[in-house]
Design goal:
Number of helices: 15
Radius of gyration: 25 Å
Number of strands: 15
Number of domains: 3
Order of helices and strands: EEEHEEHHHHHHEEEEHEEHEHHEHHEHHE
Shape: globular
Helix content: 25-40%
CATH topology of the largest domain: Rossmann fold
Strand order of the largest sheet: 6-3-10-1-2-7
Largest sheet: 6 strands, antiparallel
Structural class: alpha/beta
CATH class of the largest domain: Alpha Beta
Distance between the termini: 47 Å
CATH architecture of the largest domain: 3-Layer(aba) Sandwich
């Protein structure tokens, strides 16, 4: 029999119904003098009933910079309080609020250029836009769009005039960003730690920023429930057997889930050995969570740590180079049943690490190229080779 209390369920927070969390800590992980900007952000999920696991990610819905939105409104000649209707919203929303919270005002697509062509009163602008969207101009169009956001495009084509609703209809939704969680629920059940690389760059003579990274680093208020978040479950998991050894390769912000793994293994008293490969630019400035990892090493929780700081010597050294230097020992760990994890950049680092793993199988395992490929494939199948790359 089900009693009345059983039928009352707690709110379920999802991507479509995010929890309004608050930031409770925000500090730099790089020391003064670094060329990078990486921040440790702690997000409170107290009261949400959200249960995360080491290896999961936190989805964050960002907000655009209000100053950038105000500039866009001015260039577009539109009023902040003009109301627009948006998908998934029951009530009309003031345009300024929609542009801050709901719509992507950054880099656009061919579809937006076509919309500009349909809303300009200037024949020369229309000819230029029509030419840009032709198949033969694809490379030129992609380069043109990569250098410009919505406000830039409206400045380039001043003959374009949208109504508030027309502009809202042309813009895609502001999508959430996923961040690998850098804490274990066994240690921090009601707080999620994130390791955030703050993105800043310059194109077309204008300073640009990563929307979500600067939102978390600068614009989101401290200790106010205003940051919409949700949990994204992952395949990235520690071994079921805590006595298994683990090898973790996580340069830069790829360190995040491995900080969580180590917290969890230490908290649960796992007997398996832990080996961490970490890399960044300079050890003096960019050893993210270095004090923690050195303490773990001194306490015997981190059995091996292999560091690769690319700019601390004349020739650049990366985590895959450290792997090859430790080839024989790494192979012995794998032959003993160790799990191998990689987190971070998918475009170069993860590929280079994968190539190094194949090379280790050939050179230290005495395998042919085909045998090495089959062995790495088997590691994947057995879930002993896991990747969280982006």
């Amino acid at each position: 029999m089900t009693n009345e209390m059983d039928t009352e369920t707690a709110p379920v927070y999802t991507k479509d119904n995010p929890f309004l969390s608050s930031i409770v800590d925000n500090r730099s992980l790089n020391r003064p003098g670094s060329m990078k900007e990486t921040r440790h952000i702690e997000v409170s999920i107290a009261g949400s009933d959200l249960k995360y696991e080491a290896g999961d990610s936190l989805g964050v819905f960002p907000a655009n910079d209000p100053a950038a939105v105000d500039e866009l409104l001015q260039v577009a000649g539109l009023g902040a309080d003009e109301e627009v209707t948006l998908p998934r919203h029951d009530e009309p929303v003031p345009l300024r609020e929609a542009l801050i919270r709901c719509l992507n005002i950054g880099q656009q697509t061919k579809k937006f250029l076509q919309a500009l062509a349909g809303h300009t009163s200037d024949p020369a602008e229309k000819r230029k836009l029509d030419a840009l969207v032709q198949p033969a101009s694809r490379q030129e169009m992609m380069e043109f769009l990569s250098q410009r956001e919505v406000v830039d495009l409206l400045k380039v084509f001043p003959g374009v005039r949208f109504t508030a609703q027309q502009l809202a209809d042309q813009l895609k939704r502001l999508v959430p960003r996923l961040y690998s969680i850098a804490s274990s629920p066994w240690v921090y059940p009601e707080v999620v730690h994130l390791t955030v690389a703050v993105v800043r760059y310059r194109t077309n003579n204008r300073d640009r920023v990563g929307v979500c990274s600067t939102y978390l680093a600068e614009r989101a208020s401290m200790h106010r429930p205003e940051v919409p978040v949700f949990l994204a479950k992952s395949h990235f998991r520690l071994p079921d057997d805590p006595d298994r050894d683990i090898i973790m390769v996580g340069p830069g912000t790829g360190i995040a889930p491995f900080r969580a793994f180590l917290q969890e293994r230490i908290s649960l008293g796992a007997k398996g050995r832990n080996w961490l490969f970490f890399g960044d630019q300079r050890q003096e400035y960019d050893y993210l969570y270095g004090d923690e990892f050195e303490r773990y090493r001194e306490e015997g929780h981190l059995n091996k740590i292999s560091l690769a700081f690319s700019r601390d010597q004349e020739h650049k050294v990366y985590v895959q180079d450290r792997m090859l230097e430790e080839s024989r020992t790494l192979w012995e760990w794998l032959q003993g049943g160790a799990y191998f994890y990689v987190c971070g950049d998918a475009h170069r680092m993860a590929k280079d690490v994968d190539q190094a793993l194949h090379q280790i199988a050939r050179e230290s395992g005495g395998m042919t190229e085909e045998e090495a490929a089959s062995h790495v494939k088997l590691l994947r199948k057995e879930r002993r080779y896991q990747r969280d790359v982006y």
